[in-house]
Amino acid sequence: MVSSRKVCVVGAGISDLACARELRREGHDVTVMEQSSSVGGQWLYDPRTDNGDPLGVAGVHSSIYSSVRLLSPREVTGISDFPFYPKNNGGDARRYTWHSEFLRYIRDFCDAFGLTNAVKLNTRVVHVGTALPAGGGVGKSLRWVVRSAQAGDELVTEEVFDAVVIAAGQYTKPRLPTINGMGNWRRRQLHSHSYRVPDSFHQEVVVVVGCHESGKDIALELHEVAREVHISVKSIEGVSPGMSKEVSRHNNLHMHPEIHCLCEDGRVVFANGSCVIADAVIYCTGYSYWFPFLYTAGLVTIDDDNSVGPLLFEHTFPPALAPTLSFVGVAKGVIVPRFYEMQARWVAQVLSGWRVLPSEEEMLRSIEEHNRRATETAGVPNRLANHITFDLDYCDEFGEKHCGFPRLEEWKKELIWSSFAGLRECPATFRDDYLDSDLVRDGLCSEGWLVETPGVEADDRREDEPHSHRPNKYQ
Questions:
Q1: What does residue 373 show for φ and ψ, rounded to 5 degrees?
Q2: CA pair distance 288, 56, nearest whole angstrom
Q3: What's the CA gap between 325 and 129, in Å, rounded?
Q4: pTM of the model
Q5: Which bin fits 204, alpha (ψ -120 to 50), beta or left (φ > 0)?
Q6: 74 secondary structure, DSSP code
Q7: Are 50 and 76 in contact (CB under 8 A)?
Q8: Residue 81: helix, strand or coil by DSSP?
Q9: In 10 A of CB 136, how many CB atoms?
Q10: Please, where are the H alpha helices in 119-230?
Q11: DSSP state, 193?
Q12: Could you tell me whether strands 280-283 and 287-288 are parallel, antiparallel, or unpaired per DSSP bridges?
């Protein structure tokens, strides 16, 4: 039997809005609660930073710094039926566009599908907890109390919902290493969450901790203004070939092993005994899942190793509280927002009754079997349990199995892998220096991303008219 439910979605980023759209398509009554003054989630850039707490979460919600450009091509960075085409009225038409262009896309998506009236802005969720119906009951009859407060107002409003979808809390709480002397080091320390522009590091000696995506970006940006940039990594052997080349190319860019300790005189001592006197340390060490508003009597927790526990069934449903509580966006190493759109569609169909989840016992057995295979076969630690590591076949199977989502076209898969290769081999230039294969070019042309230039030989073809595209009814 198909049913309509009253559903609260926490957050108004791209994954949250995808949830709202899918829930409405299934006939559910949706309320989206967003603490910021506009939709966009993490992509809502704010030049303000940390409010005096550069290692914590006292500042703004967004972790976007000024120079951020997408790591994934815009041709695969969009909702399935709302491509991320360049706007006809200007903007950044490049494949790897500025963060502001993606924010505009999110707002366009919200407007195009009439989601604005579902969103309550400046509304901070302070409590999500279970509320049994008058006659008692659990499982599918479980309901949820959601308490929220308006910005600048101490008054808390309470509302009861049939279901809650949490699509926020992944990139807000900085994860920090434990380093001897860290608490006594009096020079500047900040997490990348509080980094915005390089200007204040002019002619300074800066240590960047971590060399994943943000670490690479920030280090490569800082070396143009800082006197020296020293990158500290867990394993120098694990540094990508492209980043190693960048270090060799620039006299003021250096690679080091992990930090052994920070000294009160400003020295940063590395594990191999080398040291530098630094003006600042920037921790590009990622984020912890953070749901301070969620109260489930221990049924959902964040483990010490930063995994959502007990682990979620297919990265989406906590078995003991399914289907009325779900998470969209916890999975990492996926194509965004495509995978989150799949999750949203699955959640919406389960809540309406079109799809049926296995029993709690079966979901738990599935999770245990997944963990056993991951540990025994690949040696995956628990903290990486929500990492899918860009397994495109798994993502295809997930969509087909759970919500009838079409498989990703082969040309898009090739485009994704070529982008990863570019990031690995040429982190400073891959966004602007690339050459597409014939398969990718044919795919781009078939969907209106390119207009072929007559008479151009295949080997010489670049995007002579980049991202020229067919008219879009939403533009």
A1: -65, -45
A2: 11
A3: 10
A4: 0.91
A5: beta
A6: G
A7: no
A8: coil
A9: 7
A10: 213-222
A11: G
A12: unpaired
**What is the length of the chain?**
475
- 8 A C-beta contact, residue 174 and residue 56: yes
**CA-based angle 174:176:180, to the nearest 5?**
155
Q: Is 452 helix (H, G, I), strand (E, B) or coil?
A: coil
The pLDDT value given to residue 475 = 37
278: amino acid identity, one letter: A
- Please, how many CA atoms are within 13 Å of residue 323, restricted to the half-sphere of its CB? 19
Q: Which two tokens stand for residue 156?
A: 């808390």
Decide: helix, strand or coil at residue 390: coil
Q: Collect all residues with Cβ–Cβ distance below 8 Å to 374 and sequence separation of at least 6.
A: 380, 385
Question: In angstroms, rounded to a whole number, what is the distance separating the alpha carbons of residues 311 and 78?
Answer: 28
Tokens of 393: 């076949």
SS3 assignment, position 441: helix
CA-only gyration radius of the chain, Å: 23
CA atoms of 257 and 207, how far apart (whole Å)? 12
- Which residues lie across from 145 on neighbouring strands? 129, 160
CA distances 41 to 170, 183, 263, Å, are 11, 31, 38
Q: How far apart (Å, rounded) are the C-alpha atoms in residues 288 and 63?
A: 13
> What's the confidence (pLDDT) of residue 35?
93
Contact between 194 and 40 under an 8 Å Cβ cutoff? The reply is no
Q: Are 344 and 355 in contact (CB under 8 A)?
A: no
Q: What whole-number distance in Å separates Cα of residue 325 and Cα of residue 346?
A: 13
> Within 10 Å of residue 146's Cβ, how many Cβ atoms?
21
What tens-digit pLDDT sequence spans the chain (475 residues)?
568 999 999 999 999 999 999 999 999 999 999 999 999 999 999 888 766 788 876 667 889 999 999 999 999 999 999 999 998 877 899 999 999 999 999 999 999 999 999 999 999 999 999 986 544 444 457 899 999 999 888 899 999 999 999 998 888 889 999 999 999 999 999 999 999 999 999 999 999 999 999 999 999 999 999 999 999 999 999 999 999 999 999 999 999 999 999 999 999 999 999 999 999 999 999 999 999 999 999 899 887 667 786 689 999 999 999 999 999 999 989 999 999 999 999 999 999 999 999 999 999 999 988 777 766 555 555 555 566 778 999 999 999 999 999 999 999 999 999 999 999 999 999 999 999 999 999 999 999 998 655 444 444 444 444 444 433 333 3
Contacts of 324 (CB under 8 A, 6+ apart): 140, 142, 143, 144, 162, 163, 164, 351
For the beta carbon of residue 423, count every other beta carbon within 10 angstroms: 19
